[in-house]
Amino acid sequence: MTIEGEYVPGKVGFTRRQVEAYEASGGTQANTIEGRDVGVVIVTMRGATSGAVRKIALIRVEHEGEYALVASMGGAPVDPQWAGNLRAHPDEVAIQDGPTPHRVAVREVEGDERATWWQRAVAAFPDYAEYQTRTERQIPVFVTTRV
Q1: What's this model's pTM, rounded to 2 decimal places?
Q2: Architecture in CATH of 13-146
Q3: What is the 3-state secondary structure (H, E, C) of 73-129?
């Protein structure tokens, strides 16, 4: 089950191509970061202002069926636009980790829960630790729950 509505592909070409290849192959292709053995999932969400369906590939950070969505943007000084989408529409999100997407609700985590998920995220993708040193903002972490 996915999010209904008009899909508007992202402006970043490599991300758009990765999403398309992942979905077309049922997750058997384009399921890692290019040139690295780091898995990704496809996240489908509703745009905060446009209302359009948006899709991105994010690092796969999974624990007991839940996923962390880390809004690092490589340590940029601002949150990625998709973080605003999740905040605006936390119940209109789907995760695809393999052949079939499933609906999830997301919540932004803080405190001890964030610390636990942050450790899991850094274990899955150590670059996150460096990204945090590049910015003064605390990188947001969202956690999914299947619905």
Answers
A1: 0.96
A2: Roll (2.30)
A3: HHHCCCCCHHHHHHHHCCCCEEEECCCCEEEEEEEECCHHHHHHHHHHHHHHCCHHH
